[in-house]
Specification:
Elements lengths: L1 H10 L4 H10 L1 H15 L7 E4 L4 E4 L4 H13 L11
Antiparallel strand pairs: 1-2
Length: 88
């Protein structure tokens, strides 16, 4: 329903004509197809999925903020100096 689409665009302050242009030229479906292909290549099974550490780590599903924050903090700061490797 284009009236609904127009209303949604208005509510989120997005220009409806710009959206329509991307639909009419095929740009929107091309971007959707590219996203789908990328998700297949990365083995994404659902949403939300967070892909971290160049694809070596995936957090999937309804995870808590504290888990996501801890994983990102670990990637940014690295493991504590006193920690030992889990790869022995």
């Amino acid at each position: 329903n284009w009236a609904v689409q127009r209303q949604v665009c208005k509510e989120i302050d997005v220009e409806f004509d710009g959206v329509m242009s991307r639909i009419e030229t095929g740009e929107a479906i091309a971007n959707l197809a590219a996203d789908y292909e990328q998700s297949r290549n990365q083995g994404i099974q659902g949403s939300p999925t967070y892909v971290l550490n160049q694809g070596r780590q995936k957090l999937f599903g309804n995870i808590g903020y504290s888990i996501l924050a801890a994983n990102i903090k670990e990637l940014i700061t690295g493991p504590p100096v006193e920690s030992t490797s889990l790869c022995s």
